[in-house]
């Protein structure tokens, strides 16, 4: 098996820790989304790679799991953005991007379903666009006064003394 035996308990422990440290409903929802996305990525990927390793008589299962492996990457990217888009004050783009990222994951899933392994460059481009595009909400971030001390003076190039 490809997944080390310590990874599943660490995924469950980390996801549970995020859940129990949640202070409000948005944090709880984000913790669930991220935890399920992370667990789904590792479980599906491990199943695919295990079947690929023993693929002599499991060609159809391997093909399906390979497609699911590719599909779950789109949903993991969306799940990775969920805490950031739900819990930060990012401006007007963020409210639209919260849903657009899931629409992109759904479109990517449909693309994999119909064009699996046919146009690899297009699939790579979809992953890159989906990984980069939601980060553009940073351009609409609400201006927040700099914190005292910490990394803020260093990032701004000012002296904290």
Automatic annotation (TrEMBL):
It is found in: Membrane. Coiled coil: none annotated. This is Monocyte to macrophage differentiation factor 2 isoform X3. Keywords: Membrane, Transmembrane, Transmembrane helix. The chain crosses the membrane at residues 31-51, 71-87, 99-115, 124-144. It is a multi-pass membrane protein. It comes from the Eukaryota. It comes from Galeopterus variegatus. Its main location: membrane. The keyword Membrane applies. Belongs to the ADIPOR family. The keyword Transmembrane applies.
